[in-house]
Design a protein that fits this description.
Length: about 260
C-alpha cells in the first residue's frame, strides 16, 4: 500500500496526487505565511489569423497572505479575468508558478486542478452562474458535491447567513438580482475555501445592492478566515479596500500593449 503524502509537495503526475493531502494543504498548511504566491506567470492566445500569439498575462510576482483581502483595479480587456482563471486552475498557464498554500497548481493536470478548486477556492462570478433548473438550496449543495461532501446543515446555515433562509425552495428566476448574488456568495463559501476570487462581483447590481453585496462578501470571508482577491473597475467598490493595486502595474503584458 502506498504511504500517504506528509507534505504539500506536488508531483506533476496527476495519478500520484491523492485527494486527501490536497484538502489538508488547501485548508491547513499556510498558517500566517503567504497563502498565494505567483512567480513569472504567463498566458497567451493565438492572434486572429494564426500569425503569432498575443501575451495576455505576464505577472512576474504577486502574493496574498492568509486571510488578507485585496482588490485589483483593472479595465475590461486588461487580462484580469484571465489572471483569476489561471489562479483558479480553469486555465492552464504557459509558464510560471501559482502556489496555493504549498500546492503548486501549475504542476497539476486539469483533473487535479479541478479538485484543488473545488476544495480550496470559492469563485464569485459577475454573472453568478447559478443553475436555473435547481433551487437555491440545491445550487449550494451541488457546489458542495464537488468538494469534501454535501452538508445540508451548513448549506442552510450559509443561506440563512446571507438572508435567504426563507428562500431555500425558490428558483433563481424567482429571485431579485441582489438575491441571486447572495446565493452565489453562499455557494462560493460552501466548501470552507481558503481563498475567494471575485470577478466584478457587483457588476450587475445597482448601487445599493452593490454596497450590500460587497459588505456581505467581506464579512463572510472574515468570519470564515478566507482570503479575498477581488478585481473590479468600479471605483466605488475599490474605495472599500486598502490596499488596492492597479493590475496594469502587475501585468507587463498590459503595459506592453499600451
Amino acid at each position: 500500500m502506498r504511504r500517504p503524502h506528509r507534505t504539500a509537495a506536488v508531483s506533476p503526475h496527476e495519478d500520484e496526487i491523492a485527494p486527501g493531502p490536497l484538502v489538508r494543504t488547501a485548508v491547513f498548511c499556510y498558517g500566517p505565511r503567504r497563502m498565494l504566491a505567483i512567480t513569472d506567470l504567463q498566458k497567451s492566445y493565438p492572434n486572429p489569423g494564426g500569425a503569432g500569439r498575443r501575451l495576455i498575462v505576464d505577472v512576474p510576482s504577486f502574493s496574498l497572505g492568509a486571510g488578507e483581502q485585496r482588490a485589483l483595479r483593472g479595465e475590461s480587456g486588461s487580462g484580469k479575468t484571465t489572471f483569476l482563471n489561471l489562479i483558479a486552475g480553469i486555465l492552464e498557464a504557459d509558464a510560471g508558478r501559482i502556489v496555493i498554500g504549498e500546492t503548486d497548481v501549475t504542476a497539476l493536470k486539469e483533473a487535479a486542478r479541478d479538485r484543488v478548486r473545488a476544495r480550496a477556492l470559492g469563485y464569485i462570478f459577475q454573472t453568478f452562474n447559478l443553475l436555473q433548473g435547481h433551487t437555491v438550496l440545491e445550487n449550494v449543495l451541488l457546489g458542495m458535491a464537488f468538494g469534501p461532501g454535501v452538508d445540508r446543515a451548513r448549506a442552510g446555515a450559509l443561506l440563512e447567513r446571507v438572508g435567504l433562509g426563507d428562500k431555500l425552495g425558490h428558483y433563481p428566476r424567482q429571485l431579485s438580482t441582489g438575491q441571486q448574488q447572495r446565493v452565489a456568495v453562499a455557494r462560493a463559501l460552501a466548501n470552507r475555501p481558503a481563498l475567494v476570487l471575485a470577478d466584478e462581483p457587483t457588476g450587475n447590481l445597482d448601487r445599493r445592492n452593490a454596497r450590500e453585496a460587497l459588505a456581505l462578501i467581506r464579512e463572510v470571508c472574515r468570519e470564515t478566515g478566507a482570503a479575498l482577491l477581488l478585481v473590479s473597475h468600479d471605483e466605488d467598490v475599490l474605495a472599500q479596500f486598502d490596499p488596492v493595486q492597479d493590475f496594469s502595474a502587475l501585468n507587463r503584458a498590459g503595459r506592453a500593449a499600451a
